[in-house]
Design goal:
Layout lengths: L2 E5 L2 E3 L5 E8 L8 E6 L6 E6 L5 E3 L7 E6 L4 E6 L8 E7 L11 E5 L2
Parallel strand pairs: 2-10
Antiparallel strand pairs: 1-3, 3-8, 4-5, 4-9, 5-6, 7-8, 9-10
């Protein structure tokens, strides 16, 4: 059974940085594309960034140049480094396969950007 556990969220001031981690188990991690997603209050969940098994990356326009997705296949972990955070980045952040599978959503980690 695939499980993902997100961590690293918190409260940060505008312009600050955070690094999110997602530890996955129950799958051959290196074979799958992974994605970071987020859901803000009252909005639908959206894709923030994705990374292929061969480490090609892609980003939502709203985070390009500020966020970096990476993976460590030896640790079955995918990361999201976030810089220059804005209040509109406030959301619960989730990781999942890309494309996402319904049964593999974790609890997410809350990111709040506020002064």
């Amino acid at each position: 059974q695939v499980q993902v556990v997100e961590s690293g969220g918190g409260l940060v001031q505008p312009g600050g940085s955070l690094r999110l981690s997602c530890a996955a188990s129950g799958l051959i991690f290196s074979a799958y594309s992974m994605g970071w997603y987020r859901q803000a209050p009252g909005k639908q969940r959206e894709l923030v960034a994705r990374i292929a098994s061969h480490v090609t990356t892609d980003y939502a326009d709203s985070v390009k140049g500020r966020f970096t997705i990476s993976r460590d296949n030896a640790k079955n972990t995918v990361y999201l480094q976030m810089h220059s955070l804005k209040p509109e980045d406030t959301a619960v952040y989730y990781c999942n396969l890309y494309p996402p599978l319904r049964d593999y959503w974790g609890q997410g980690t809350q990111v709040t950007v506020s002064s």
